[in-house]
Design a protein that fits this description.
single chain; alpha+beta; two-stranded parallel ribbon; 4 helices; 11 strands; 32% helix; extended
Length: 159
């Protein structure tokens, strides 16, 4: 191996070791709590904190009302000069799926893009506003009111 390859391998090992020490990996939980929600009516997006088995994790998770499936977490950017970003919290696929399902329960559905399945006529296109896509406005307003009052906190068991 050349010295450049050795140097690259050493650098990769350093980054891998740093990530192993600094990224919080959660592979199992008995209970998740989504709490401390904030929400922007202007952007239809917000943040929340997560507790795993009662322990508050560092960082906040982001969400979007307009249908983005998933959310980026707080990121480490270019640790040790690596040309990449890494999440601060890494949840297992099972925990991510459970959290995603719970978020879908918390926020009312919005109409997907495309033809209305019931009428077969109206189209929802990319330039449709989120407000126009909200199906249950009363449920949406109730969820927003809970967030604004600080009262939205959801705990659920996993098994």
């Amino acid at each position: 191996m050349s010295s450049a390859e050795d140097e690259l391998n050493d650098r990769l090992t350093m980054v891998e070791n740093w990530l192993e020490e600094n990224v919080r990996v959660v592979t199992h939980a008995n209970e998740l709590t989504l709490c401390d929600f904030t929400y922007s009516l202007k952007n239809y997006s917000g943040e929340f904190a997560i507790r795993v088995d009662g322990e508050l994790l560092d960082g906040r998770l982001h969400f979007w009302m307009y249908g983005a499936d998933g959310w980026p977490t707080v990121m480490f950017t270019s640790p040790l000069g690596a040309p990449a970003s890494y999440t601060v919290i890494e949840l297992s696929g099972e925990l991510n799926a459970a959290m995603r399902a719970k978020m879908r329960e918390i926020f009312p559905r919005i109409a997907p893009f495309g033809r209305n399945r019931k009428t077969g006529v109206e189209f929802t296109v990319h330039n449709s506003t989120v407000e126009d896509r909200i199906i249950d406005h009363e449920a949406y307003q109730n969820t927003v009111a809970q967030i604004e009052s600080g009262g939205l906190r959801v705990t659920f068991q996993l098994n």
